[in-house]
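Hey team,

Filing this mostly as a record. A colleague (T.K.) asked me to run one chain through the structure pipeline before their review meeting, and I want the input and output archived in the tracker in case anyone asks later how it was produced. No errors, nothing strange. Just documentation.

Input sequence:
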Amino acid sequence: METIELKVDMVALHEKRLRKCLSKVKGIERVEVEASIEKVVITGYANRNKIVKALRRVGLRAEFWSAHNEILSTYATGSVMFNTYSFF
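Output structure:
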């Protein structure tokens, strides 16, 4: 069994369309959606490229999750504290 992490540009309305699309792909056993950071975790035996192709076919922009996305999601959720210094 394989776990595939994807970054999917979506709003709350797209989650239903995403789940419906992925339900038609053979080999997917579980789908977890973290809408706040636009991350989708798919568990199963499906081909990675077929999953991305299916999502793009229904109009969702999808790409494989990378370390760059992890950094961006950390900033987007506000998990990182910024120190502001005044030099003047």
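Quick notes for T.K.: Residues 80-88 have pLDDT under 50 and may be disordered. The beta strands are 2-9, 28-34, 39-44, 61-64.
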